[in-house]
Amino acid sequence: MNDLIAKLRAALGAANVLTEGDLTAYEQDWRKRTRGKALAVLRPGNTGEVAAAVKLCAEAGTPIVPQGGNTGLVVGGVPDESGREVVLSLTRMNRVRAVDGGNLTMTVEAGCVLQNLQQAAEDAGYLFPLSLAAEGSCTIGGNLGTNAGGTQVLRYGNTRELCLGLEVVTAQGEVWNGLTGLRKDNTGYDLRDLFIGSEGTLGIITAATMKLYPLPVASLTAWAAVPSMEAAVTLLGLAHKHLGAGLTGFEVMGQFALSLVDRHMPQLRVPLYQDTPYCVLLENSDQESEPHARAAFERLLEAALEDGCATDAVVAENIAQARGLWHIRESIPLAQAQEGLNIKHDISVPVSRIPAFCAETDALLASSIPGVRLVNFGHLGDGNLHYNVQAPVGGDPQAFLRELEERVNVLVYDQVKKFDGSISAEHGVGALKVDKLPDYKSPVALSLMKSLKKALDPQNILNPGRVVSV
C-alpha cells in the first residue's frame, strides 16, 4: 500500500493525498452514526487527476469511495472500517465551466456547491431550480449521484430531469465526455441516466451540463393550516387547478414536526400550527407579474377556505417573510436532531394513497410502541414523505434506536410496499438500505442492477457494498 500511496502522491501532489491528521470530515457520515477508516483521502483538482487516481487504484485493486459534500443520509459516501478504501473527494473541482444562455444550460464541475451554482445562474439572469436543505454544503456531483429531489420537484423534476450531459471517469480510469447540451439524442443507450442515481458505484461523475430556466417575474409563498392529510391532498388538487405550472412547491408538515421547530428555534415564530394537525407551504412562481401571481393565490386560498380543505392561511408579503417560512420548513431535520436520536424514513407513495398510508401506519406504530412520536413532513406534491420516528418522551434515545430501529423499519417498509411505494425516494440506498432491497425491489430489477455493476465495474472497486451487493 505504501507503493500505491507514493504513486498517488506523484499523480495528485503530496498535499492532496491525506493519510494523517484529523480525517473526521471525510470518514464520518453527516448524521454521525458511522465512522469509517480511510486508507487515504484523495483530493484531485481536475478530471485528468481523477482518471489517474482511478487507474492506480484499479491496478492495486483498491476500493474507491467517491465523495462530494458528505451530506448524505444513507451512509453512501464514507469509507468502511477496513482501512482499505480510499475516499476520493471532488470538492476541489468546483468551477462553473460555462454558461450558455442561448441553450439555457450551465456546465459545472462535480464539486460545485449547489448554492454557488444557484447563485451563478442567478448572476447570469437565470434560474437553476434544484433546492434542498443542505444546498449550502452539498455538491452537484452528490446531487446527481443520488438523484436528489428537494422542494421544487413538483415543477422541475429531480436532479435527473435537470441534467443534459455528464463527464464520467469509468472504473478503468477512462473518461467519457458526454457534456452535450442536447435535448434530443437517440444514438443508443442513455448512459447519462445510467450514472445518475448510481451513487458512484458505476462511474465517478466529474462534471455535468445542467438545464437553466428564465427567472420568474414573481414568486409568492403561502402557509395554510389544513385539518387532515386528506384535506392537504384536496388542497394540492385545487392548487394544480388554479396555479397550473406556476405551482413550484407544495410541502406538508405535521403538527409535532413544527412543534419541534417552535421548541428548539422559537425565534422562527412558526405560524398557525398549534390548532391543526398539518400545515402546508405553497410556492407560486409567475412569469407575468406579482399582481397576477397574488390574484391567483388569493383565488386558490378563497376556494380552499370555502371547501374546508384549509382552515386558515397567510401569504408572505415580501421576500424576507417568504424566506422565513421556507426556513421553518428546512429547519425541521435540525430541530428533530436537537430533540434526540431518531429513525429516519425517506419514502414515496402515490399522492392519492398518502392519507390512507399515514392513517394506517400511524395507528400501527402507536399500538406497537406506546408513546411513539411521528415527525411526518415532506414533499407532498410529488408523493415524498420524510416519515420519521422519535422515541417516546422520557425514553432513552440510544436504547430506542438500538432495540427498535429494525422493527420500526420493517413495519414502515412493509406498509410502503403495501401502498405501492418506494423505501427510498430521494436520499438513495447507500450502505444503510442495501440489505433491504431484496425484500422491497423486484428480483428481476435487482438482477439487472447486478449485471450492470459487474459489466461496468468488474473489480467491484467503485463504492463497493453500496446500492447493490455483488
TrEMBL record:
Ranges for domain FAD-binding PCMH-type: 34-215
Pfam families: FAD-oxidase_C, FAD_binding_4
PROSITE patterns noted in UniProt: FAD_PCMH
Keyword ATP-binding: no
An individual GO BP term: respiratory electron transport chain
Coiled-coil residues: none
GO molecular function: catalytic activity; FAD binding
Keywords: FAD, Flavoprotein
InterPro entries recorded: FAD-bd_oxidored_4_C (IPR004113), FAD-bd_PCMH (IPR016166), FAD-bd_PCMH-like_sf (IPR036318), FAD-bd_PCMH_sub1 (IPR016167), FAD-bd_PCMH_sub2 (IPR016169), FAD-linked_Oxase-like_C (IPR016164), FAD-oxidored/transferase_4 (IPR051264), Oxid_FAD_bind_N (IPR006094)
Protein origin, superkingdom: Bacteria
Family: Belongs to the FAD-binding oxidoreductase/transferase type 4 family.
PANTHER family named among the record's database cross-references: BLL6224 PROTEIN, D-2-HYDROXYGLUTARATE DEHYDROGENASE, MITOCHONDRIAL
Protein name: FAD-binding oxidoreductase
Organism: Ramlibacter agri
